[in-house]
Amino acid sequence: MIYSLLIEDVVRRALREDVGTGDVTTLATVPADIRARANIVAKGTGVVAGLPVLEEVFRQVSPDIKIKFIREDGAWVRPGDILCEIEGWARAILTGERVALNFIQLLSGVATRTASFVELVAGSGARIVDTRKTTPGLRLIEKYAVTVGGGRNHRMALDDAVMIKDNHIVAAGGIAAAVKRARNAVPHTMTITVECETLEQVDEALIAGADVLLLDNMDNETRAEGVRRAKGKALTEASGSITEETAAEIAATGVDILSVGALTHSSKALDISLDIIETYQDLS
Questions:
Q1: What does the alpha-carbon distance between residue 280 and residue 54 come to, in Å, rounded to a whole number?
Q2: Is 133 a catalytic residue?
Q3: Which of 30, 49, 133, 224 could cross-link with 265 by S-S, CB 3.0 to 4.6 Å?
Q4: Which of 23, 130, 195, 256 is catalytic?
């Protein structure tokens, strides 16, 4: 679910950045009394995500704009498929075009790549989740796109859960000390994850009572042994440069979770365009 007030703010900032004091090209070339009908059209194959954000863009540009959705978020589309039909003042449609497309292309790219990873690990029992490696200011909607593609969300922010990583371990004086301090500092409802790079660290984290073991950058043989040691004691999460080529083999080690930063930091935008199909003069 996208939280409307946060989306309003994200869209407002994007429009302020793109439009500035006004769309000089559109204002100079398009008469004020011209209305238009346009289609949002897929130019590539993938999963649609971000239609509510697109709708908010045009709402902020002009409440007069009407949108008829042909597809919905989560739908697979192919080149030529119409996602929605738009009608309103031509100037408003052209002014909002780029921002609307930027959002839906980005989010559909994230959803499409997520769906690819989910398919690759299907049947293994492992879940595909995102990370905090998101575009600053766009985390909420990028993580939303991950769920549209069939993935799950990791923690949204630093205050969601404890994740003790290598630098925390060094600064705290070891895994045992870090976990003990965390247990004393956070509510009982909050999970504690410990990053482990060796089997020795896996054993330390289990003895310390970690809820989740982040098996980071391990080879699959070592990762499988970590899963075996943690079974029934803690969830296991694989991380570290997971790609489409390696995801299935990593999932086969028995890990519960694959956290994939590439879902949000390296997905290719899905090609989508806005095509004006008709203009007419409004004489009212």
A1: 24
A2: yes
A3: 133
A4: 195
The catalytic residue among 165, 228, 231, 268 is 165
Instruction: Give 267-281 pLDDT, tens digit per residue.
Output: 999 999 999 999 999
What are the structural domain ranges in the chain?
4-111+268-281, 118-265
The structure's pTM equals: 0.94
- CA angle 260/17/96 to nearest 5° reads 90
**pLDDT tens digits, 134-157:** 999 999 999 999 999 999 999 999
| Residue 223 a catalytic site member | no
Helix 90-120 to helix 4-19 angle, to the nearest 10 degrees? 120
Fold of 118-265: TIM Barrel (3.20.20)
Say if 4-111+268-281 and 118-265 have the same CATH topology: no
List own/partner pairs for 230-234 with CB under 8 A and 24 or more apart: 230/202, 230/206, 233/206, 234/205, 234/206, 234/210
Mean pLDDT of 70-93: 98
> Which pLDDT score, from 0 to 100, does residue 2 have?
59
219 is catalytic: no
Class of CATH domain 4-111+268-281 = alpha beta
Active site residue 195: yes
Residue of 37, 43, 132, 133 with catalytic role: 133
Which of 35, 59, 98, 155 is catalytic? The answer is: 98
233 is catalytic: no
